[in-house]
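### Sample
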Amino acid sequence: MIKTSLFADQEREAKLNKLGDALQVMEQHVDFAALAAEIDLAAPRPSRERGGRPPFPTELMVRVLLIQQLFNLSDEQMEFQLLDRLSFQRFVGLRASSQIPDRTTIWTFKERLIQAGASESVFDAVNRQLSRHGYIARGGQMIDASIVQAPRQSLSKEEKAIVSEGAMPADWKPAKRRQKDVEARWTKKHGKSYFGYKVSANADKRYTLVRKLKVSTASEHDTMHFEDVLDCANTSRDILADKGYVDGEREARLSKQGWRLHIQRKGSKDKPLSAVQQRRNHRIARTRARIEHVFAGLAQMGGKALRCIGLARARLHLNWKVAAYNLQRLVYMKEAGVEAF
């Protein structure tokens, strides 16, 4: 016979704490009120002059979006989990409330950030918290890029030609326009075709935290955003990158500015790499490969695919995804006792 208890909710929460709730651990190390304040500064809350139900607090919505990124949930799944899951309710502060942000509320909050040009606000705010904890960028920086796939589009040759010029076919109805991603692009990597966007990232060597990022269409070459993601705040002038970033003119220019570039060399059929160059590539790869761990972490959180349409929404999604990764990494380092300088 199953026992009933008037205190079942409290008993479950006690057991949850004993087992270890990762969200409660995150709460101990992250100042969510500060994150919300910076987002409100970048994207002010809507006016209530016309009345209506007041919006949910920004801090609550920040917590919702971070959970969404950590667990790779759609807006619809997020609504369901907030109704169903104890740990989520407790983390966002809705344990004793019958009201929860529904899918439309979550979508509206994201659109508010996009319209205000505040897609990067949470990433910047998280990085400021990392610095306050003492985890400043140290030891040099590693630069790389990764493709983030979007749902493939079924277009005729004529439609593809129009879309490639940055326009939409005139005969598309509004409903169809909303479902077609005309900003994502095709690219090839290792002989395989991909459709979507690309995130270029800079991670520091000491803590493998992402310090800079740039979101673009997949067709833009990695090397185009090399200087966009340079981190001048890093304590070292060393830069590590793979052979996709070889550019003699840029390397000469940056070297004159005091940067020490460690970029792997690529050989060709007519001019293979020498033994010295191969050893140099191996030395660089041993350290540079650590940024692949960052992309692997993002992939585990669903960061290799998109559910949204358009570059603006992809930029918002990936900035929140990387911010969630950095917070997860911060919590790990604090709990593991990784020394901050």
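Residues 137-310 form one domain. This sample (IS5 family transposase) is used throughout the tutorial notebook.
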